[in-house]
């Protein structure tokens, strides 16, 4: 479970999060929707540990531990995973070498034995087939020459291999056609197990047709201004965010 309490965050003197409170329970899929500039991506970066942001107040508790004092790699070892809105291309870094390195690093951090090459290959092959990632993609440098949908599938592949306990999807639907969206959503849904939690950040209801949330939160001006069930997402799709921007102002 993750509990965010009175989180106040600035970047370069600009207040982005303004006393934000949020709880995501074990096994819950929570969606955050809101207008541009409301602080949704900032929230994801602060949870993951991006250094540019200054936390002025508040706590982020993962299973009772305040992770704000931890380095990003330590948060990842605790089970935090962030799927970026725009995954980076990394020329010169082979995809398979990258996947093996991150998986064995996580296993080592958890006190588990590293995988042999045959065991690693079997895991990757099985997960890649489910996400319709072909062998040619796995032979390239990481994300280099990938389409938007291929980059998102590669991130879900990383998530499937690492088996994190808290997964943040930052506008994963950006740039995806309906087929790629379905494939990515199926990969996410396959990881829902009653214990693993998800924070799904999106502007649009269409993603939530495929990854059905337990709760929906509306974010505006750096804080949560309303919480409801999946019907709230349908309401937002129909009426937009104008009322919430006015309320938060």
Automatic annotation (TrEMBL):
User: Is Disulfide bond tagged as a keyword?
Assistant: no
Q: Matching PROSITE patterns, A to Z?
A: ABC_TRANSPORTER_1, ABC_TRANSPORTER_2
- Supply the InterPro entries for this chain: AAA+_ATPase, ABC_transporter-like_ATP-bd, ABC_transporter-like_CS, FeS-cluster_ATPase_SufC, P-loop_NTPase
GO MF assignments: ATP binding
Domain named ABC transporter is located at 2-246
Q: Which UniProt keywords apply?
A: ATP-binding, Nucleotide-binding
User: What single Pfam family name could you report for this chain, choosing any that match?
Assistant: ABC_tran
Q: Does the entry feature the keyword tRNA-binding, yes or no?
A: no
Entries under Gene3D superfamilies matching the protein: P-loop containing nucleotide triphosphate hydrolases
Q: Which family does it belong to?
A: Belongs to the ABC transporter superfamily. Ycf16 family.
Q: What is this protein called?
A: Fe-S cluster assembly ATP-binding protein
From which organism does this entry originate?
Pseudochelatococcus lubricantis
């Amino acid at each position: 479970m993750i509990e965010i309490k009175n989180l106040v965050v600035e970047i370069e003197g600009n207040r982005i999060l303004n006393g934000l409170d949020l709880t995501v329970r074990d096994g819950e899929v929570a969606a955050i929707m809101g207008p541009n500039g409301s602080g949704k991506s900032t929230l994801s970066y602060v949870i993951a540990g991006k250094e540019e942001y200054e936390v002025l107040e508040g706590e982020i508790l993962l299973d009772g531990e305040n992770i704000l004092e931890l380095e990003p790699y330590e948060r990842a070892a605790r089970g935090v995973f962030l799927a970026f809105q725009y995954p980076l291309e990394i020329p010169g870094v082979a995809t398979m070498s990258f996947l093996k390195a991150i998986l064995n690093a996580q296993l080592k951090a958890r006190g588990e034995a590293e995988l042999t090459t045959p065991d690693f290959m079997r895991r990757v092959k099985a997960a890649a087939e489910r996400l319709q990632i072909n062998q040619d993609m796995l032979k390239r440098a990481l994300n280099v020459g990938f389409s938007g949908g291929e980059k998102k599938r590669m991130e879900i592949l990383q998530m499937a291999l690492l088996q994190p306990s808290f997964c943040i999807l930052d506008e994963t639907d950006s740039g995806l056609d309906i087929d790629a969206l379905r494939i990515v959503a199926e990969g996410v849904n396959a990881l829902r197990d009653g214990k693993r939690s998800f924070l799904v950040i999106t502007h649009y209801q269409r993603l939530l047709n495929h990854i059905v949330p337990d709760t929906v939160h509306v974010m505006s001006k750096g804080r949560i201004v309303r919480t409801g069930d999946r019907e709230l997402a349908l309401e937002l799709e129909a009426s937009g965010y104008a009322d919430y921007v006015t309320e938060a102002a």
